[in-house]
Design brief:
The structure is a single chain. With about 160 residues, the chain is an alpha/beta fold. The chain has one domain: Ribonuclease H-like superfamily/Ribonuclease H (Nucleotidyltransferase, domain 5), CATH 3.30.420.10. It contains 5 helices and 5 strands, in the order E-E-E-H-E-H-E-H-H-H. Strand 2 and strand 3 form a beta hairpin. The two termini are about 15 Å apart.
Amino acid sequence: MRILGVDPGSQKTGVGIIDVQGNRIRHVHHAMIRTGKGEFDERLHILFSGLCTIIDQFNPECAAIEDVFVSKNVSSALKLGQARGALVAACGHYGLRVTPYSPTKVKQAVVGFGRAEKDQVGHMIRMLLHPPEPCPEDAADALAVAICHAHHTPMQKLAGKQ
């Protein structure tokens, strides 16, 4: 199974793709979609088309995306939600089912501790997947989302959710 993981952001989005066969997980690709600081509608278009290009190239079978969490800045949370919507729409454009995961669940699946720091997630991604090139934080987070989905998919299939 080829899984697409996405760590959404309105200026930079991490993307990670893994292959899963049984209990073996293999790194396929990771990237950053950078939108810059231009007009917001243009940034949403860059996110949509950038993810479409990656999906087109790597043909994942399913997708997982990190949930939006609301911090103190509601305006930022709304923009992040719109960015996430553009990314989910790109997946839907290709008929991919998208499963959301909370940041805590992702960290728990990869590090074993739901409140792990970003550097701990990055370290575990390097240990588990051995990416061939340096992995930016957001791309490592996206790979972690994909791994989280790989860990939860068998349970979901047994429960009849997929």
